Amino acid sequence: MSIKNNLLKILDDLPQDVSLVAVSKTKTKEEIMEAYEAGQRIFGENKIQEMVLKWSELPKDIEWHMIGHVQRNKVKYMGEFVSLIHSVDSLKLLKEINKQGIKNNRKINCLLQMHIAEEQTKFGLDEGELLELIDSAEFGNLKNITVQGLMGMATFTDDEEQIRKEFAYLSSIYLKIKNNIPGINVLSMGMSGDYKIAIQEGSTMVRIGSSIFGVRNK
């Protein structure tokens, strides 16, 4: 199957209110352009340097999403153009993004990353930390960021019930905070292996790489 056919098959599968982030990390400009020419405009990267290079060389109507863990000292490189940062897991990181928003005279869109998996290797806030963060005065003073919603990754397992339970939990937190923060409308959960379950549990944005582009290049 070609990248175009894979992409169209997935788009056909997705409900209209679910957006697709094509995960293009390690992929060539040619591979990305094949998806672009098939109509895809949102691409996700997990390394800032790689995303900056692709942004500089590819069409300017592409929305670039940073889906990987973000180090504060790297935010400045994407402050000018990034469309959405999925993986914000601390007030310190939010402050740095806000600083770069001021510097570039724009509001930078963010998602707060929640830790819902059983694996300790995943980053993210727990529910208590999330509520503490959004209730803080410091958070209220950050005028150059827009928190659009939440992101989370389920445990890497074949146990569908566990995956469903984790997504349902994240969905319940999302609905809780949606009423408290104006403009919250993104719940980013679900990847190539589990996006169908994520959508059933309320995901509004899925991140799909290998099912579109094939196995990741090393």
Summarize the structure in words.
It is a single chain. The protein is α/β, with parallel strands linked by helices. The chain has a single domain (3-213), classed as Alanine racemase (TIM Barrel, Alpha-Beta Barrel), CATH 3.20.20.10. Helices cover 41% and strands 18% of the residues. The protein has helices spanning 3-13, 29-37, 48-57, 75-78, 91-103, 127-135, 137-140, 160-178, 195-200, 210-213; strands spanning 19-23, 42-45, 63-66, 84-88, 108-114, 145-152, 186-188, 205-208. The chain has an eight-stranded parallel β-sheet. The longest helix has 19 residues, at 160-178. The radius of gyration is 17 Å and the shape is globular. The model has no long low-confidence stretch (mean pLDDT 94).
Give a concise summary.
The protein has ten helices and eight strands. Strands 7-6-5-4-3-2-1-8 form an eight-stranded parallel sheet.
Portion of residues within helices: 40-55%
> In terms of structural class, how would the helical and strand content be classed?
alpha/beta
Number of helices: 10
Strand order of the largest sheet: 7-6-5-4-3-2-1-8
CATH superfamily: Alanine racemase
CATH architecture: Alpha-Beta Barrel
Terminal residue distance: 21 Å
N-to-C SSE series? HEHEHEHEHEHHEHEHEH
CATH C-level category: Alpha Beta
Q: Any idea of the CATH topology?
A: TIM Barrel
Q: What number is the mean pLDDT?
A: 94
Number of strands: 8
Shape: globular
* Residue windows where pLDDT falls under 50 for at least 5 positions: none
The major sheet is characterized as: 8 strands, parallel
Query: How many individual domains?
Result: 1
Beta-strand residue percentage = 15-25%
Write down the Rg.
17 Å
